[in-house]
Amino acid sequence: MPSKPLTLKFLDLASILAMVISTYLALVFAPQEVVMGNAQRIFYFHIGTAWVAMLGFILAALGGIIYLITKDLKWDRFELAAVEVSALFFLITICLGAIWARPVWNTWWTWDVRLTTAAVTELVFIAYLMLRQGLEDPEKRARFGAVYTLLGGLSVPVTFMVIRLFRTIHPVVVGSPSAEAQGGFNMDDRMVATFLFALVAFTIVFIDLFWHRVRLGALEEKVEQQKLKASL
Amino acid sequence: MTESTRPPAPSFSKAVLAIVRKDLSAELRSRELLSAMLVFALLVILIFNFALELDVKVRETVTAGVLWTTFAFAGTLGLNRSMSVEKDRGCLDGLLLAPVDRSAIYFGKALSNLIFMLIVEAFTLPVYSLLYNVNLFQPGLLLVVLLGSIGYIAVGTLLATMAVQTRTRDVMLPILLFPIVLPVLLASVKASAGFLNGLDFAEISGALNLLIAYDLIFIAVPLMLFEYVVEE
Amino acid sequence: MIETKKLVKRFGLKTVLRGVDFKVQPGEFVALLGPNGAGKTTFLRILASLARPTLGEVTVAQYKLPEEAPKVRAKLGVVSHLPLLYPDLTAEENLLFYARLYGLNEPQARITATLNMVGLENRRRDLVGAFSRGMQQRLAIGRAILHDPEVILFDEPYTGLDQDASEMLDQTLRSVAATGKTVVMTSHDLARAESLATRFDVLSRGVIVASATRADLAQTDLLKFYKQALAN
Q: Is residue C28 part of a domain?
């Protein structure tokens, strides 16, 4: 069994370090926002997780396309890893959004376009995982999974556009004149720095988790192979 | 039959037509699929009547929503049945063994499913009109019903083909279908409500355009993906 | 007429066929014997263009699979243990549907001839759903030979048939074989295979372990040959 690659070990450490620094920046370094107070600090992690969740979503659809072309199960593992990690981050994004919305919008949940789209994406992921559960043949599971991520990858952006036709109260955070009234705010330099660092930090964490999950998938397959050999 | 008299493979349209005729004559005899869909649609409307207290005021705002929920639920029933018939006695293999393009098989099944869906809608709309004294026979609304049904069936036929091949075939279809088909349902509800409430065409055109875009994407993509869900 | 070279089929990690070399001359009737799980059905599904080979070459009726699958399909008839028939259609309607899918020029004449051959001309207008298992299987053979294929594949045609039905099927198979078609039949019923086939191949653990013609078996009997093949 191959031992953990050095780069991955390094990434593990980098992830922990990045999260610690990012937490410090968000909670201490960044100044308190005038209107929303400390609740605004959630924003840094909210956007950070949302960004990598999106990234995972796109990677999953790409993995699906490449699998259908190459029929190499490696890409199925890639796709599954992307879905699982992305599902996790979408869940965190939704929870953080709800916690933030409670003091600012005075409600845990609103049927806002971004929130709803995130929830729908989560449902697509759950359906994807249930679909895989219902199929025993790994090749068929990979094929159907790839087709489904592709459909999801096409449908979710349309969902976003459709919901946007309905009114939204989600703030367009920076630069929109009406933003402030809805909970947007102007960011000063320290806020921008904190925000950008959070994006980088979550990207590192994402890559680290993603890599781990792909590696786990490969190890799982090895175990299966050994079992199969033993049974013959 | 010698080589020269051997007929060429049938054209795309002939193969599609053969499948549609087969489905219609089988349904004309058993009426299993349509009767199930129709009774179910009536029951859903009945339940909504009590659940939402559909008095005159409420009806103005929820009619479009009630209609599309009814269509969506009844639709999964029909899709599941239509694809189970093919799977159960190996008939899907029979279709795949014929010298016709896989996309012709998809198109034929989708067309049959669309016809069943439209028949159910053609019964449901007058019943709803009669029960609640609203005029649903407006050209605009009928156009939305057609466009929405096309999108719904285009994705539904592909996903039902996948669903009937899983271990959990009876419950899988709605879970797979609804998150993907959500944009169609939302846009259809929005456009239907617009026509029912006599909004200007300019206010409805956004939803209509999205509906048309979705229809085009989700006819083209399943046509390409269908062979991946039927071939080993 | 049929040739496979180093044919390998994997389902994910499981290798079902591990290098099958198989050749059938025109007019031969080959019985493919082997225990359950030997890969017989998978092998036949590859010849039938229903599954894709992972590695190796497959040629059926002078065309390569899977590249020239549509051309192969026009010259191929398949009977599996599932009937591939629609219970809500009559015998005639079932055949008419398949005649259209194969683009036959004079479907009615072909249907009459086929029904005569399988001894079901007096049940022409009866629903297939009301047929006994044996009658369904004979009609399934009719469906497979309707387009006058050069190659016919039988996958365990006797499954689920009682003694009388099996004997009727024997007669039908014999009359099909007498027309000079190339036939491959999988079976674990040695006695039935012995009375029909001109050559016997044994498939075990994904490879052909033995092959003998009827003449080779003049000295020994099929059961001995089969047991010996598996023992090696």
A: yes
